[in-house]
Amino acid sequence: MVRQKFNKKEIIVGTLAGLLAVVVLTSYLWDIQENIRLGYEIGRAESQAAALRKDITRLETTKASLLSLERIEKTAREKLGLGDIRDDQVIYEDF
């Protein structure tokens, strides 16, 4: 049995086809890996955003409680020793 030899053109075409297949497969696998990485990154960003939203809500609640008029009045009376306004402390001006 005689084995047929490949000529240079067939070797070059076969090599180029093999390289093209390797490049296409590599780029496909890279694309899949990049999509997975971005998916994890999006998941982490969404969980951070949810945590920040929760912190904002907590801080707004704290702010509202600190600015409540009842709390301010209680602090003024207990810590600063302030009382009700007397009539002689009020000054009226005509405009």
Describe what you observe in this structure.
With 95 residues, the chain is mostly helical. It has one domain (8-84). It contains two helices and no strands. The chain has helices at residues 8-66, 69-78. The N and C termini lie far apart (122 Å). The mean pLDDT is 92.
Protein topology:
Blueprint: H1 8-66, H2 69-78
Overall SS class: mainly alpha
Q: What average pLDDT do the residues reach? A: 92
Which residues sit in consecutive blocks of at least 5 with pLDDT less than 50?
A: none
- Shape verdict: rod-shaped
Beta-strand share of residues: under 5%
Separate helix tally = 2
Radius of gyration: 39 Å
Order of helices and strands: HH
Largest sheet: none
Query: Residue share in helices?
Result: over 70%
The total beta strand count reads 0
Quote the distance from N terminus to C terminus. 122 Å
Count of separate structural domains: 1
Give a short overview:
It contains two helices and no strands. The chain has helices at residues 8-66, 69-78.
List keywords for this structure.
single chain; 95 residues; mainly alpha; 2 helices; 73% helix; rod-shaped
